[in-house]
Amino acid sequence: MTDEIQHHLLMNQLNSNGSQLLGDLTASRLQKQSRKQARVNDQKVHVVGAGGTLTAAYEQLRNAAEYAEEHVLLQRAIRRFYRRLFVLHDKKRIGASGEELIIELTHAGYLPNDSVPEDDVAAISDAAVRYYNAYQALRKNKAITYEQSDKWTYELLAVEVEWRLNDNSQLQAFTQFAHSYFSSTIDYEQVFGTPPQTVDISLYVAVHRALLKSDDAVLRLGLLARFGQSPDKLESYIDVNRQIDVILVSQATEKLFRMVDKRGAPLRVLRHMVDDSPDLAALLPNREQMLLAYEKQVTSDYQSVNRRVNNGIIKSVMFLIITKFLIGIAIEIPYDYLMFDMILWLPLIINLLFPPVYMVLLRATMMLPGNANTARLVKQIDTTLYAAEQPKQLVRRSGQEFGTGYNVAYGVLFVAVFGGVAALLWQAFNFDIMHLLIFFVFLSAASFLGFRLSRMIRELESVETHQNGVTLVRDFLYMPFVVVGRFLSDKYAKVNVVALALDMLIELPLKTILRLIRQWAAFISAKKDQL
Questions:
Q1: What does the DSSP assignment read for 167-222?
Q2: Average pLDDT over residues 276-291
Q3: Above pLDDT 70, what percent of the chain?
């Protein structure tokens, strides 16, 4: 047998990583089917009563205010529920909170009716009690900040409940595969010199953040489960959480995240196949069929990203217009009357219309990858799943080390762009300091929103794209605004005034009233049964 024929035969067989993925997917699917069959006759929670339409409408408004990724919306809704509950310190209600949560999530449209077994409801209530006990103890501990006690209790409880409601075993199989792949292809010594002891955990965090977009709560709960920690053993629970806090923000984690993120395109498409293709386990052993299905998935992902970017542009434009309208009423118009005894219409209209128009123009520069990128993705996944030896390609490139001169030039660019735009608006359109401040805030927000949307496309790019004249000018002009926009976004996420106002002024009274209505309806029903 010639070496060429032997190589061809080997390339038609799954390698060790591919075989691991096949085995884990098969096992998780069988376990899921077994659990489903075992619980087919279990009593499910049936949700009745008023409030569904109102709750669902509010949830849409609340999600728009937070501008969160779609895959974390359920987790955030659960988190808000337990935040309200823990603040009330009603332990009896917390002990029976499972059913109330399922009713609220069903009304909000996150869960189909008659889908949650009553055993799960009881388990959710038990978990809430465990985390609330830890919450009380942590709040009394002066060495623990309130922010830490929140992150270590009800934020984790929200993730644990979500995992119980939505089986994620297939996703765990993919995550383990991705971790094994990058672990075998990253040359840690070349990247770090002396690898840190926690490099494997940092890679776990990097894979989750880059490929699954997991937030810190998901990462924390996964690591706590990995270390066998629970809130019942509070002393070791605190110690491990503090170690996790260090790992989440470490330089090693950030460096590995950037490497995985930059080289994660072929695995992102594979992850979508795990979600969308029930027969993936059957496809994997057949290389030819698998690669054909993978190529179709790439095309499907291009179309999906195109829709998501378009929807994101629409949502962003609406977000900017509504927020700017509120800012205009609350700040800009009163400021004009105070300083000029009249409304300065030109700055007001420019501040209202320019950011949305700017976002639409940014969309015109966002181009989907072409056929060369598709071919490269197929080739890479072929090597990843079927090649006997994985090339050590994920290494630091010395060509990307830039000197002080580049940083100085970037700083000059930053000042020049902001200064030039400010001078133009000041002289030509009668802007003053307040109008300029509002203009730059909203232009920076629009730039960062556009940058986030463009990342959706870049996440599928395996062929390094070369900038043309249009994209070069775009990046030259808007990168300083992106930097400021990211800074503002981080601050806004920590103190989201709009979301806090909705929580206090609408959500709390709304959910309280709806709960009282449900209790009253149950009381009337009981009285009718007594007649």
A1: --HHHHHHHHHHHHHHHHHB-HHHHHSS--TTHHHHHHHHHIIIII---HHHHHHH
A2: 91
A3: 81
